[in-house]
Design a protein that fits this description.
This protein is α/β, with parallel strands linked by helices and about 250 residues long. The protein has a domain at about 90-155. It has helices at about 40-50, 75-80, 95-105, 110-125, 140-155, 170-185, 195-205, 220-225, 230-245; strands at about 5-15, 15-25, 30-35, 55-60, 65, 80-85, 160-165, 190-195, 205-210, 215-220. Helix 3 (about 95-105) runs parallel beside helix 5 (about 140-155). It is globular and about 55 Å long.
Length: about 250
């Protein structure tokens, strides 16, 4: 049994078909990176996985339970899926610590003191314990995103989905966020949509290249960057390397 299994996911908005039958799996503590041009359905796929935007057809299984089943206890299963958004999605009226502890208190019904202790622990992991009492308005974009990661980690998820976690950040702040993600590799399963090719190359166990609502090719970073089978994959990675440097 795979930890996460995505089977034949289809998703349309009106007559526009975004996902045209996507299937793959993620194992425990594996890091998979999804790459591809903009508008190819990568973010939609993540939202279909945690049912923020349920697919029209196909199945999603997590640890042997089907999220796409009408009888699924979504609130309970969703607790096992962390989600780190492109635009942080923090509560502006709560401090960094409260942003991390609120899910523990409300969803996991953890006692307030315990939840705050755990929140501080998670903020420490992302290098932000000193900012625990600051509000999002006082934090840089990179710090906000690291709070978002701490918030996802606090729930002890089976997997964390990252939707272009660095695309809203200034270039000099990206490194801190990627460093935190690099340190998580091998400790929790991660499915990451990103344009950061250096990160994908160094950290991914497998890279999935998507285009036009399909998976074109997947393989290890070495295979994808040095020996891709499909001409389209080689072309895409060639263009990206020229744009962003080889890293």
């Amino acid at each position: 049994m795979h930890m996460l299994e995505v089977k034949d996911i289809h998703k349309s908005y009106g007559s526009y078909e975004v996902l045209k039958g996507v299937s793959f799996s993620v194992e425990k503590e594996e890091t998979k990176v999804i790459i591809g041009t903009s508008g190819t359905g990568k973010s939609t796929l993540l939202k279909c996985i945690n049912q923020l935007d349920p697919p029209d057809k196909g199945e999603v299984w997590l640890e042997g339970e089907e999220l796409t089943s009408p009888s699924a206890d979504l609130n309970r299963i969703r607790q096992k899926i962390g989600f780190v958004f492109q635009d942080f999605n923090l509560f502006n009226h709560l401090t960094a610590m409260q942003n991390v502890s609120i899910g523990l208190e409300k969803v996991k019904k953890m006692e307030k003191g315990k939840a705050r202790e755990k929140a501080i622990e998670e903020l420490k992991k992302v290098g932000l314990e000193k900012q625990a009492d600051q509000y999002p308005a006082q934090l840089s974009g990179g710090q906000k995103q690291r709070v978002g990661i701490a918030r996802a980690l606090a729930m002890d998820p089976a997997i964390i989905l990252f939707d272009e976690p660095t695309s809203a950040l200034d270039p000099e702040l990206i490194g801190d966020v990627l460093e935190v993600m690099k340190n998580l590799a091998g400790k929790v399963a991660m499915l990451i949509v990103t344009h950061e090719m250096g990160f994908a190359r160094n950290v991914a166990d497998e890279i999935i290249f998507m285009e036009g609502g399909h998976i074109i090719e997947c393989g290890s970073p070495d295979q994808m960057f040095n020996n891709a089978c499909k001409a389209r994959t080689r072309e895409f990675l060639g263009k990206i390397s020229t744009l962003y440097g080889k890293e």
